[in-house]
Amino acid sequence: MPFSMTGYGRFRLEDCSNFNITAEIRSVNHRFLDLSIRLPKNLSWLEESLTKIIKPLFQRGKIDLYVSIEHNTDDRYCRLEVDRGLLTEYLAQFKQIKTQFKLPGRIRMEQLFMIPDLFIKREEVDEEALKQAACSVVQGAAQELLLMRQKEGEIIAADLKKRINKLDQTIKEIQELASELPTLCQEKLHKVVSELLGEVEIDEHRLAAEVLFHVERSSITEEIVRFKSHLEQFQSTLLATGSIGRKLDFITQELHREINTIASKTADISISRYIVDIKTEIEKIREQVQNIE
Questions:
Q1: Is 143 left (phi over 0), alpha (psi -120 to 50) or beta?
Q2: Inter-residue contact 234 to 164 (CB < 8 Å)
Q3: Is the Cβ–Cβ distance between 136 and 13 less than 8 Å?
Q4: Cα–Cα distance for residue pair 39/77, rounded to 1 Å
Q5: Residue 292: phi, psi to the nearest 5?
Q6: Domains of the chain by start residue, with CATH
Q7: How far apart are CA 289 and CA 60, in angstroms?
Q8: Greatest CA span in the chain, whole angstroms?
């Protein structure tokens, strides 16, 4: 059963290790797996663990994961620290500028306090408990996304089956019409030759040879056989597990190629009408296949 590449999932845990954690995950179509994780800046160390949860669950799609983590209590312990590396770099640059441009004066303490992000707020948290809680929330959101992608995939599969059945019926109509082409070709050539030669006797053997030449050149039997084979492959692939989107896309391209060949080899009006219908359905199938993982 195919999975859609579009969907949304959300999961939230409250009062978990003194945190309220919410995860939202959404996905759209993409040729490959493209994962983007957004976390609070001070919790970026969680990204690797969350990536290990998401990647095994999805094979294709542009996936965006948003995680918000909030304290649910005000009695947490925190302390302020100076970013000593940042301060050292600022002081070194000040000294270099002063020397290079021979500027007077000294750096005052209040000027140092104006340095952006000089102070870092350190909160005492149980990192292991927080990581486990965050992973649990992301796992829940990912399962919600998978469920939505599965339901959407079932809808797409049902639509594709209807369209494939319609193509199968239409190609059978073309096959039936194609079986009448030799007779029609013979009648058409006989009429043309009779009009040109008038009362002159027609060489039936030569006429038969010409009919055979035109029939062989315009024969679409092989293309019809391949087209029907591709339809069978498409249907069997729909029942397969795993990532099937690329294979379905390839089969759709082959269906389009075969019907183009059929169109170029026959100019019969009755067949051309069916060819237009088939091309329309193939285009709709191609649009749907782009949504399948």
A1: alpha
A2: yes
A3: yes
A4: 21
A5: -95, 135
A6: 7-75+125-148 (3.30.230.70), 78-122 (no CATH), 153-289 (no CATH)
A7: 13
A8: 120
CA gyration radius, the chain: 35
CB 30 within 8 A of CB 60: yes
Going by C-alpha positions, the residue among 79, 69, 6 that lies closest to residue 37 is: 69
pLDDT for residue 157: 94
How confident is the model at residue 249, as a pLDDT?
Answer: 95
Q: Which residues of 195-220 are buried (b: 16+ CB within 10 A; e: fewer)?
A: eeeeeeeeeeeeeeebbeebeeebeb
What pLDDT does 186 receive? 55
193 close to 205: Cβ distance less than 8 angstroms: no
The CB density around residue 99, as the number of other CB atoms within 10 Å, is 9
Give the pair of three-digit tokens for residue 276. Answer: 């237009």
Residues in CB range of 190: below 8 A, 6 or more apart:
202, 207
Tokens describing residue 164? 């494939």
C-alpha distances out from residue 202 to 142, 149, 213, Å: 77, 68, 17
Q: What's the pLDDT at 123?
A: 62
| Residue 60 token pair | 């294709």
* pLDDT at site 147: 95
Cα dihedral across residues 227, 229, 233, 235: positive or negative = positive
The whole-angstrom separation of Cα 17 and Cα 72 is: 9
DSSP one-letter code for 17: T
Q: Are 26 and 49 in contact (CB under 8 A)?
A: no
Structure tokens at 292: 């399948």
Which residues does 137 contact at the CB level (< 8 Å), separation at least 6?
A: 11, 12, 13, 16, 21, 22, 23, 67
0.90 surpassed by pTM: no
**Which tokens is 174 given?**
């073309």
Give the chain's residues under pLDDT 50: none
Structure tokens at 33: 């797996």
